[in-house]
Give the backbone structure.
Amino acid sequence: MGHTETAVVTGKPIEMGGSLGRREATGRGVMIVTREAAKHLGLDIKGATVAVQGFGNVGSVSAELLAAIGAKIVAVTDWKGGVYNPKGIDIPKLIAHTQQHKTVAGFSGAERLEPDDLWGLAVDVLIPAALENQITVENAPHIKAKILTEGANGPTTPDAHQLLHERGVFVIPDILANSGGVTTSYFEWVQDRYGYFWELDEVNTRLEKKMVEAFDDVLQTSLKYKVDLRTAAYIVAISRVGNVTKLRGMYA
């Protein structure tokens, strides 16, 4: 273009044309779809027990926001260890601990938990928010959660996903669950194109609307075709591409 185009790159510092709310957006999206799934299943999110694998940006924000709407975070693990408190973990204090020690291990507000023991906990919600291929056919049979929200990219292997679906676990796939980040990157692009930046409340309100609509589209497609949410998400996505391609053939 011959001059700086700030909209080309997203996730920028606020001072360079970044969007408010971008850092928390992926975790906020995880919270929103988990809340909506709980509504669908008739599970009261207030008091619902949650276990989180990974306590980086996605895991910590997801835990913090779920706790803020009344969920009880009972277990968290990371690369170095894990903590468990059946009465609920004080997430702001755990975040402060990890900022100082770079791990949840050693947190005084909970007992020690071996990372692999996370999968077998009797919780309502399980959020893998660390690495890919963490849930396999070996540990999937031990999962007792009603809802599994994929905060990470590809945390569940295909065989494990099939096993969980057959057992009735409500799996919210990564393509939907962690899309809050890329959605807010789109918001950042829009703001840079306009040269006008939104307040945090507006960013979060717009993200809420988009995530609820996306969850409902995928859920209704799942019910219509009697398929799992991962398959439904691909049906929604491919249908949109197909429809646009058809229209372009007529109008381009």
